[in-house]
Amino acid sequence: MIVDLEKKWVIHAKCAGVDPELFFTDHSANVVYRNSPTRKVASEWEKAKIFCADCPVRRQCARDGLGEMEGVWGGMDPAQRLVLRRTHSEKVRRLTGSLKKEYAKLAYDLRLRHLAYHDVARIIGIGLSTAQYLCTTVGLSCPRTTLARPRTTSGSR
Ligand code: SF4
């Protein structure tokens, strides 16, 4: 499975009922893009990562949260996810055969749900250009309607 769009694993999450503040630090996305999290932010991320370490669905959370810009998902902070997302994008671009078709079909199906490329990329955990590439590969052509950007699902676990 590339991603679980319904996040069925969430019922087993260790953080169910835990204050989301543990995982989301104000302005964390901005901090990442400056490449210099403050000591306070870094310390808060560390606390969340320690909490996630023995979560039974950490792998699924890390996979499905790879494209999220803020907060700690699956024991990874935004900076760690950014690095992994780039690697994931490169791997996806090099794919061939049935797995490539699987990714392309997922991207295409998400576009059919009227999601913008930005959101397709976030959901799959890849870069924007890779999401666009997927939609134009393996013979699939994406709908050309004007797509409204839906409300973000960031933070929902
Ligand atoms: S790994 Fe994900 S689901 Fe598990 S505690 Fe951490 S944030 Fe919650």
Q: Helicity level, as a percent range?
A: 40-55%
| Low-confidence blocks of residues | 145-156
Give the helix/strand class: mainly alpha
Mean pLDDT: 86
Overall form: globular
The whole-angstrom Rg is: 16 Å
The count of β-strands is: 0
Give the count of helical stretches: 7
Strand count, sense and closure of the main sheet? none
Strand-helix topology:
Layout: H1 28-33, H2 39-52, H3 58-64, H4 78-94, H5 97-112, H6 117-124, H7 128-135
The chain binds iron/sulfur cluster.
The site of iron/sulfur cluster (SF4) has 14 residues, from α2 and α3.
Describe the fold and architecture.
This protein has 157 residues and is an all-alpha fold. It folds into two domains: 8-78, no CATH class; 95-137, no CATH class. Helices cover 48% and strands 0% of the residues. It has seven helices and no strands. α5 crosses α7 (128-135). The model is unreliable at 145-156 (pLDDT under 50). The structure holds iron/sulfur cluster (SF4). Residues 13-15, 23, 51-52, 55, 57-58, 61, 73-75, 157 line the site of iron/sulfur cluster (SF4). The site of iron/sulfur cluster (SF4) has 14 residues, from α2 and α3.
